[in-house]
Amino acid sequence: MGLRDTLEKQYLRSNKRFADAFNYFLYDGEQVVDSDKLREIDSTEIATPYGKDGAKSPIQRFRDQIMTWEVLQAMADERTVYVVLGAEAQDKVHYAAPVKDGLYDFMNYAKQVSEASASYRKKDSSRTGTNSGDEESDGNGDAAKTDKNDNSEPMVILINENNCRLD
Predict the structure, then answer these.
(1) 24 or 152: which carries more pLDDT confidence?
(2) Domain that holds residue 66
(3) Would you say 64 and 89 are in contact if contact means Cβ atoms under 8 Å apart?
(4) Is residue 165, in this structure, part of any structural domain at all?
């Protein structure tokens, strides 16, 4: 990782600057993303897909900067809508960046599904009085239990390459 990449990550740690970058690139400078509604989250994405012969093959990746943005708080159903905003700094053109960032996105979506599934297992075990464990299969090797009312937090990622300054 180059010096420029490190400095840009440090620069975007400020909620105000992070919001400004998204407002500039997505909303032509209109103040839509409110820096007070941003919360930094862990930039680590981990997935454990199955490799050859069913062996687990862990993957770990790190985003440069990632935050959740509280977009809307609906009083009627007491639910809050969040969007995951991420920023990636590139000190040179990386033609495979969309593929790399797509992998990060899907690792994050897999984590969201896993967390939803774990909450269902916890509810089921408290209702039945049994401990279903961390990984419960449906018999088809699928440990994820979801519902049609489950929602994933959408992700929006900015990729800043060397020809675009943020200051």
Answers:
(1) 24
(2) 3-130+149-160
(3) yes
(4) no
Residue 26 domain-assigned?
Answer: yes
Q: With bands split at pLDDT 50, 70 and 90, how would you rate the model's confidence at 73?
A: low
Query: Higher-confidence residue: 34 or 71?
Result: 34
Task: Say if pTM beats, i.e. exceeds, 0.70.
Answer: no
Lookup result for tokens 């919001």: 19
Using DSSP's 3-state secondary structure scheme, residue 17 falls into helix
Angstrom distance (rounded) from CA 85 to CA 32: 13
| Residue listed under structure tokens 């049994």 | 130
Q: Does 138 reside within a domain?
A: no
In the numeric block, the tokens 């401990």 are attached to: 131
Indicate the number of domains in the chain: 1
The full DSSP string for 17-53 is HHHHHHHHHHHTT---S-GGGEEE---EEEE--B-GG
DSSP structural state of residue 54: G
Answer whether residue 143 is part of any domain.
no
Retrieve residue 18's tokens. Answer: 């992070």
Name, in order, each residue with C-beta under 8 angstroms of 143's C-beta and a sequence gap of 6 or more. 114, 117, 135, 136, 137
What are the angstrom distances between the C-alpha of 127 and each of 98, 130, 143, 147, 148?
Answer: 43, 8, 19, 18, 21
pLDDT given for residue 110 in this prediction: 80
Q: What rounded mean pLDDT belongs to the chain?
A: 74
